[in-house]
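Write out this protein's structure.
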Amino acid sequence: MGRFSGCSRTMTDSDSTRTKLATVAEEVRSFYERMPYPAPLTSLDQHRDLYKNQDRRRVHYHLTWPTEPLRRNREIRWFSTRRRVNPGKAL
């Protein structure tokens, strides 16, 4: 008799891992098909001009800080660890 006689093939741990990885890979692929990266900027000046529109800035604010009320004096310094929330007050 062979080593595996009388046994039906069951899913091994490696089969299970491959199945899980395939599922995760499919979820990631699906996500990026629904939410693709934005196209690269062709003009930095045009992109900067988009944010002169107050409505667009308001929407961006709520996407960035969804739980906080709109505050027009919020300033973020992206290249520093310091964040200035109210320019009139010292930190």
